[in-house]
Amino acid sequence: MCGISVGMEMKPYLTPKQEKVLNFIRKRIGERLPPTIREIGEELGFKSTGTVRDYLKVLIQKGLVKRMNNKSRAIELTERASFKIPIIGTITAGKPNLAYEEIQGYVDADDLFLGRLGFDDVFALRVKGDSMIDAGILEGDVAVIKKRPNADNNDIVAALLDNNEVTLKRLRSRSGKFHLEAANPNYAPIFEEFKVIGKLITVIRKY
Amino acid sequence: MCGISVGMEMKPYLTPKQEKVLNFIRKRIGERLPPTIREIGEELGFKSTGTVRDYLKVLIQKGLVKRMNNKSRAIELTERASFKIPIIGTITAGKPNLAYEEIQGYVDADDLFLGRLGFDDVFALRVKGDSMIDAGILEGDVAVIKKRPNADNNDIVAALLDNNEVTLKRLRSRSGKFHLEAANPNYAPIFEEFKVIGKLITVIRKY
DNA sequence: TGACAATACACACAAATGTGTGGTATATCT
DNA sequence: AGATATACCACACATTTGTGTGTATTGTCA
Question: How many A-B residue pairs are in contact by the CB < 8 A criterion?
Answer without folding.
Answer: 196
